[in-house]
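Take one record.
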Amino acid sequence: MDYIDFVIEYGKKLEKKKEKCEKIDAFIRRAEDFPSLVVQEGLVPAMTFYYSKAGNAVNVENADCDELTNEGKGYSVYLGFLIDVLKSFANLKCTSPLDCIKEVRQEEIVITRKILPILVEMKKVSNIVGKRVV
């Protein structure tokens, strides 16, 4: 699966959650901010910051509506998405945010170049999903 298909499939998962939760504003905000944070600070510092805000990673299917909708939230769901991206496109074996941060440190520049287009595409798709009337 190429990264466009991957992001589209994730967008479909967001659409299902939006049907239940009515909005996904917190995830959209995280998806908008993360690529810029990666470019400004680096992938490892960006991941560390999101992890400090989240405390854990959650798959979108298992996220509660509070995590997807409320201001100051969304970090855990975005971390879940990021771990999926790292495993699928950077061939990492990590299962937790700390394991991923440790693995990313080994080849941060190469991994950043691989995944940045995916992160930017997710930013666009989450905005599309967020604006659609369900």
In short: The chain has seven helices and no strands.
